[in-house]
Amino acid sequence: MGAQIREYRQRIRSVSATKKITRAMELMAASRVVKAQQAVRESTPYARALTRAVSAVATFSNEDHPLTSEKEDVRRAAVVILTSDRGLAGAYSSAVIKESERLIARLRDEGKEVVPYLLGRKVIGFYRFRRRDFAAEWSGFSEKPTFDVAREVGERLVADFTTATDNGGIDEVHVVFTRFVSMVTQEPEVIRLLPLEVVEGEEAPDEADLLPLYDFEPGAGQVLDALLPKYVNARLFNCMLQAAASELAARQRAMKSATDNAEELIKKYTRLHNQARQAEITQEISEIVGGATALAESK
Amino acid sequence: MALQVELVAADRKVWEGEASQVSARSIEGDLGVLPGHQPTLVVLTEGEVRINAGGWKSATVDGGFMSVDHDRVTIVAESVDASGMGS
């Protein structure tokens, strides 16, 4: 009997320790998600200025740029997959991986060769474990992406995109990431990064504020050359920031339910522990009473 | 009439305000912007951007571009060292 009580006590102790950890992780994720959301907001002025400039060039010149023109024969498609570095975030990483598998299956059906680019330890582990090939990997920043990483990834993608297909280049680039809709909703999403489509058009001009006829220095072509790679980086950076915010929100939720679960378990084990203790006491009493009666009868 | 200036880095807005003159280094040389400047989109090289907003402020950019239209100046760079911006 005593052994059972001891076992319950041990269980309660271990679950309490787990609860402390999950509670701490929940609070940490909660405070970081606010920062991550702020980072998303702070990157918008840059993205907006770039979009405006790119659409200005697109509107006022008929420049064709390799980054914006569709290739006729798409044979190799890159898939960039953004996951987290650490687990304990519920279905966050697996949802992204599942979405990417769907996309890869679709691209294969269209007769394209798929070239994966992996960001985040979780998806790298997924590919390593299955011994699948991939083109490149980056990791170690998923909670707090910096622009330098976005630039590195963006430059690699642009370089591969501008390489001829036969020399290992790629014809289009898709990105699978998690869009941060709100604290409770994050959705895995696929966007096509290259060839570029400028998302927001130049806003309709006010009557007093007619579209200016820009002077391009040194020339529209060179301006576009300088702008478009930056635009790619900015979009990638935005995806990474949204993914980071989503990861933290997912972790917060996962850790909250883990904490709730731990509380539930503690409650359950406390009940069982009390029951066992009571049973032991009851048994001891009945043993004493039984012993006393037996003694009284034997006299 | 003054210029509305915005200095933007990839991860934050560095500075915003009114200024009477802006100068930046483009690929083809230094370029000064005064109110009433023609709409322009200029590619910048690594160098200093100087903004006269009641006293000169300066920041170092790693390239990027500057757009000017209707006295609105937007300077965009991936990274901006704003240690010379004061407050």
Walkthrough of the structure:
- Chain A has 299 residues and is α/β, with parallel strands linked by helices.
- Chain A has two domains: 2-18 and 257-291; 28-199 and 217-254, Pyruvate Kinase, Chain: A, domain 1, CATH 3.40.1380.
- Helices cover 60% and strands 13% of the residues of chain A.
- Chain A has helices at 2-42, 44-60, 92-109, 121-129, 147-162, 220-298, and strands at residues 76-82, 113-119, 136-138, 172-180, 186-194, 215-217.
- A five-stranded mixed beta sheet of chain A has the order 3-2-1-4-5, with helices on both faces.
- In chain A, strand 1, helix 3 and strand 2 form a beta-alpha-beta unit.
- Chain B is mainly β.
- Chain B has a single domain (3-81), classed as Sandwich (ATP Synthase, domain 1).
- Chain B contains no helices and eight strands.
- Classes of the chains: A alpha/beta (299), B mainly beta (87).
- At the A-B interface, helix 2, helix 5, strand 6 and helix 6 of A face strand 1, strand 5 and strand 6 of B.
Structural class of the helix and strand makeup of chain B? mainly beta
Fraction of residues in helix of chain A: 55-70%
Residues in β-strands, percent of chain A: 5-15%
Please tell me how large the radius of gyration of chain B is.
11 Å
Q: Which of globular, elongated, flat, extended, rod-shaped describes the shape of chain A?
A: elongated
Quaternary state reads heterodimer
What do we call the CATH topology of chain B? ATP Synthase, domain 1
Biggest beta-sheet profile of chain B? 8 strands, mixed
Q: How much helicity do the residues of chain B have?
A: under 10%
Quick synopsis:
Chain A is an alpha/beta fold.
SSE map:
The complex is a heterodimer of chains A (299) and B (87).
Chain A: H1 2-42, H2 44-60, E1 76-82, H3 92-109, E2 113-119, H4 121-129, E3 136-138, H5 147-162, E4 172-180, E5 186-194, E6 215-217, H6 220-298
Parallel strand pairs in A: 1-2, 1-4, 2-3
Antiparallel strand pairs in A: 4-5
Helix pairs in contact in A: 1-6, 2-6, 5-6
Chain B: E1 3-9, E2 12-19, E3 21-26, E4 29-33, E5 40-52, E6 56-69, E7 72-76, E8 80-81
Parallel strand pairs in B: 1-7
Antiparallel strand pairs in B: 1-2, 3-4, 3-5, 5-6, 6-7, 6-8
